[in-house]
Amino acid sequence: MDDVPTRTPVSLASRLILEGVHHSYGATNAADGIDLTIEPGEIVCLLGPSGCGKTTLLRLIAGIERPSAGRILLDRQVVAGPEAFVPPEKRQIGLVFQDYALFPHLSNLDNVAFGLKALTRAEALAEAGRALERMRLGRYAADYPHALSGGEQQRVALARALVTRPGILLMDEPFSGLDSRLRGSVRAETLDVVRDAGATCVIVTHDPEEAMRMGDRIALMRAGRLVQLGTPEMLYRSPCDLSAARFFCEINEVSGKVAGGRIHTPLGSFPAPALREGERAVAAIRPQGIEMRAPGSGIAGRVMEHRFLGELDMYEVAVQGIDRPLVVRRRATAGLAAGQNVGVHIDIAEVLVFAATGP
Ligand SMILES: Nc1ncnc2c1ncn2[C@@H]1O[C@H](COP(=O)(O)OP(=O)(O)OP(=O)(O)O)[C@@H](O)[C@H]1O
Asked: Which listed residue, of 4, 169, 217, 300, carries a Cα 20 to 30 Å from 160's Cα?
């Protein structure tokens, strides 16, 4: 094909609004009053541990499930609510599942052409062919999905989801079937294609790093609820509670008590302006926020273990007054080995303070 467009045709991106959305399976509240607005063209990742309700929310948006209360709007149209329910095929959505859900008995070209029901067969095949070309899969058009690698199958699934130019693209753990070496490149490619298409996009993932790479915003979920919504930086820097902090980064948790607006711990005192006087609290210290200098400065510590991990090595450092050694991540320091005494210094910018009785 000579006249292959290099960019994916632009969709008319939809605004998605969820208002007080509830859904339960028996006694399990899989969606427990979700309010969320996603702007046209925005990529939002639904992030959270297994069973928190991410897939249920995606299925509600798609129209595969119907909410027991609340409303879902696409642009100004109510697609789910007490007064209306629009079935999935009428919602102008594109879906990409974890297992790609390609039809094994159809060629890659026919898989992509499948949703183009409004076109003649010849038009649908031509359009599907262009979509495969854009994904650099044109040479596999006549082949069957099983002959492709996982990454290529994922791209066929993405071509199929985008060929109808949906206003909103919904992806459920789209990269989890790929091995870790392939995942990074397929992720980056997918992000380019989705941005080019301009579609609003909701991606379900349980991987915080993936959410930070892909999402304009991240919606952090727990037990059917939305616990925090914001940019990746906002969620990483200012997690709403200790559980959210733990979810984003390995942390050292050091207990202490609040006095004079600060938490006092064996590692020193840190500002705790939002906490009550006398309250038990936890200082969460990121491993990269701990520095080891010559003994005699800072807090006395001893290196218990050193593991070479490439760019940043991991050290475990015992400090008096703390039950477990601190996990420290630093560039490998020549000669710093297990058994050595060090002076521990904490970078206050890497310390978050939370009430001890978090969820
Ligand atoms: N069809 C169903 N019948 C009964 N319970 C269900 C059904 N689907 C989901 N659930 C329950 O609803 C809750 C939310 O499930 P959901 O699959 O939405 O979570 P998730 O965050 O996507 O989890 P995962 O990451 O493991 O896929 C879980 O407790 C789950 O066991």
From this structure: 217
Residue 2 reports pLDDT greater than 80: no
Any atom of ligand 1 within 6 Å of the Cβ of 25: yes
* CB neighbours of residue 212 within 10 Å: 17
- Domains in the chain with CATH codes: 16-242 (3.40.50.300), 252-355 (2.40.50.140)
Q: Which residue bears the tokens 């980056």?
A: 188
Give me the long-range contacts of 320-329 (CB less than 8 A, separation at least 24).
320/266, 321/266, 322/254, 322/266, 322/267, 326/252, 326/285, 326/287, 326/290, 326/301, 327/250, 327/252, 327/287, 328/287, 328/290, 328/292, 329/287, 329/288
Structure tokens at 131: 């979509």
Q: Which residues have C-beta within 8 Å of that of residue 25, sequence separation ≥ 6?
A: none
Ligand 1 pocket test: which of 45, 56, 97, 170 has the largest number of ligand atoms within 8 Å of its C-beta?
56
Q: How far is the CA of 328 from the centre of ligand 1 (A)?
A: 36
CB 47: neighbour CB atoms within 10 A? 28
222 pLDDT higher than 80:
yes
Residue type, 59: R
Q: State pLDDT tens for residues 31-61.
A: 999 999 999 999 999 999 999 999 999 999 9
| Substitution site in 25, 173, 202 for ligand 1 pocket (most atoms within 8 Å of beta carbon) | 25
Element (H, E) at 195: helix 180-197
Q: Which residue's CA is the closest to the ligand 1 atom numbered 6?
A: 25
- Is ipTM strictly over 0.90? yes
